[in-house]
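This section describes the prediction task in plain terms. A model, or a person checking by hand, is given the sequence of a single protein chain and must write out its three-dimensional structure as a string of tokens. No templates, partner chains or ligands are provided. The sample shown here is typical of the held-out split.
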Amino acid sequence: MKASYKVFLYDREYGDLTDAVTTDSFDAGVQLVRDRLPVQADYVVEATWTRGIGEMEVRSPRGTVVARVQPVDDTDVTVQPPVTKACTALQVGDAAPLERLFSPLPEAA
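The expected answer:
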């Protein structure tokens, strides 16, 4: 089973979730965490690799979780049909459907 990875990034002081990103590999998830965290800080890293699946948690010295990389089944990453259609249109040069995905919805009368 191929797994994607969800990367969760948290506020260093308070532990509030600040971002969540899906990557297609554990390596990409670790790289994203490395790119996003300040390099001049100390961290406690716990990582495991079991049956081809990696997991990692990064904490501040006070124990606050600042990042987590965990596997998610590919089926957990659901793309809705309008998004698929808009991305297909973009591949043939039509950006309008993709732009409409982010347009405000008309108000009901």
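For orientation: The CA atoms of residues 2 and 52 lie 9 Å apart.
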